[in-house]
Write a structure and sequence with these properties.
Layout (H helix, E strand, L loop, with lengths): L2 H21 L3 E5 L6 E6 L3 E2 L1 H4 L1 E8 L9 H17 L6 E5 L3 E7 L4 H9 L4 E7 L10 E2 L16 E3 L26 E7 L3 E8 L5 E7 L1 H13 L4 E6 L2 E4 L11 E5 L4 H12 L7 E9 L4 H51 L9 E2 L1 H30 L4 H37 L2 H33 L14
Parallel strand pairs: 3-17, 8-10
Antiparallel strand pairs: 1-2, 4-6, 4-16, 5-6, 7-10, 7-13, 9-15, 11-12, 12-15, 13-14
């Protein structure tokens, strides 16, 4: 066995071990062996779609006059922001698709409080940083500001106690501002000046303050950094209020100037509250306001028993294919079976873990399962083409090594063309499902395309590597029956 084949075999074994780890786990995590601190943790349970698990389906529509034109780019951006909000709030497995030029279809599989989630997604609050001068305004006070724009950033949030540059000494807040709650029915007559709005926020994420408590760090746009630098430089010791929807959250005092466009909101946050505020800041602005026009609860059309029976049927089908390949192609068929099992292991791992930087996993629906089963058949087709070519070369008098290489190279054009045509069909189905809100069609296209991609890998790399590993040292003349000749 040559060095190149050895390298591929080592890589395949590593991938198989990692994939099996994912397939057999509900959660995977890595820990630093020296400090015992967690380095990585991820839930890899199989996610079921609305038709398998039940949940809520909601139809959102642009909250604009019917005569107003909604740009497709703005609607798609709105969909992405809403989906990011839901995922950031911990509502996993949410599926959102644009439907036409004014509507978004949202599906929440297995969500126990979908109405609350939808309400949070619709809410478009205004975040302002307000100049309170030398007098703090108590948290919970409803105020008037001189900003009348419509910048949407955030939602309600817990009281915070400081906004500082994490690289500078922590600002000293007025603690009473974070705890007292005055009568909201008596708003002050003073109109306060808005220094900056949430539109100048570039990024917000959960972090920890100097005491190790949960906090929210943020960075500003170049314009926001200049505004913040000028204000904090000229207003030391004065109070900068954080205001949402004209309601004061807190009024920390300005310590050292914040000149690099980064800061931290710290206070008596729980981890959940800090995450919620970060999500609100990060995914606050909606290009298109939306409203709920229809909401209905969907029961699982299959249920656990039907899912179990589907899995049993799939296992039976896979077993029949394995037996057929073994009986018809003998030793190459056994190798094909190993490659087919590798395909199933790889595919399930991708469904559960996803591909980093591309997607975080697949939500399985009934059409998605159908796409996976169809892709199994296509993986077998590739092996059959290779083995038929292999047998032809062996009958022509080639040795095992030559027959493997020639058989694969001559079968490859057919494998490539058939799989390419399938991938083109998947793209068309995906576009159709995405454009018209047909999530079932979209799920089928995604799982089928992933299956085709993995089957190409197993046909091009895994099967060929296994063939060379097992067959290169075997003399055909001594064992012709092993090859079905």
């Amino acid at each position: 066995m040559n060095r190149r084949n050895t390298n591929w075999l080592i890589l395949i074994v590593i991938l198989l071990a990692f994939s099996l780890w994912i397939d057999l786990s509900k959660e995977i995590s890595l820990t630093n062996p020296f400090t015992q601190e967690p380095l990585f943790s991820r839930n890899v349970e199989i996610r079921l779609g609305l038709d398998l698990r039940g949940g809520l389906q909601t139809l959102l529509e642009a909250d604009l006059p019917t005569t107003a034109t909604v740009a497709s780019g703005d609607l798609e951006t709105t969909r992405q922001i809403l989906e990011s909000r839901a995922n950031g709030l911990g509502v996993s497995e949410v599926l959102m698709q644009t439907a036409g030029d004014r509507r978004i279809v949202a599906e929440f599989p297995g969500v126990s409080n979908p109405e609350e989630v939808v309400a949070a997604l619709q809410q478009t609050a205004l975040l302002e940083f307000v100049d309170f001068g030398t007098t703090p305004v108590l948290a919970g006070t409803v105020i008037d500001t001189d900003y009348e724009g419509q910048v949407s950033n955030g939602d309600t949030a817990p009281a915070a106690t400081a906004t500082t540059d994490p690289n500078q000494p922590t600002a000293t807040p007025d603690t009473s501002a974070a705890t007292a709650t005055p009568d909201a029915n008596q708003p002050p007559a003073t109109v306060y000046h808005t220094v900056m709005t949430g539109s100048d926020l570039k990024e917000a994420f959960v972090s920890a303050d100097t005491t190790g408590k949960p906090a929210v760090s943020f960075t500003l746009s170049s314009n926001g950094a200049v505004i913040f630098s000028d204000y904090t430089t000229s207003h030391r010791g004065q109070y900068l209020g954080i205001v949402l929807d004209k309601t004061v959250i807190s009024a920390p005092s300005v310590g050292d100037p914040i000149t690099d466009g980064s800061g931290i909101i710290s206070g008596s946050f729980t981890a959940e509250e800090a995450n919620k505020l970060a999500v609100q800041l990060r995914y606050g602005s909606l290009p298109v306001p939306v409203k709920v026009v229809e909401s209905r609860t969907v029961g699982a059309t299959l249920g656990e028993e039907s899912v179990r029976k589907s899995l049993v049927a799939g296992i039976i089908g896979l077993s029949v294919v394995i037996v057929f390949m073994l009986l018809y192609y003998r030793l190459p068929g056994l190798i094909a079976d190993l490659a087919l099992l590798s395909y199933a292991i790889f595919t399930l791992a991708i469904y559960k873990f996803g591909i980093p930087g591309v997607f975080s996993g697949v939500t399985l629906t009934l059409p998605g399962i159908a796409g996976f089963i169809l892709s199994v058949g296509m993986a077998v087709d590739a092996n059959i083409l290779i083995f038929e070519r292999l047998k032809e070369e062996l009958r022509a008098g080639k040795n095992i090594r030559q027959a493997i290489d020639l058989g694969w190279s001559r079968a490859w054009p057919s494998i490539r063309d058939s799989n390419t045509s399938t991938l083109i069909t998947c793209v068309i189905l995906y576009i159709f499902g995405n454009s018209f809100g047909a999530s079932m069609v979209k799920g089928f296209s995604i799982t089928l395309a992933l299956g085709v991609g993995v089957s190409l890998f197993t046909a091009i790399i895994v099967t060929r590597t296994f063939l060379h590993t097992v067959l290169d040292s075997i003399k055909l003349a001594d064992h012709p029956r092993w090859f079905g000749l």
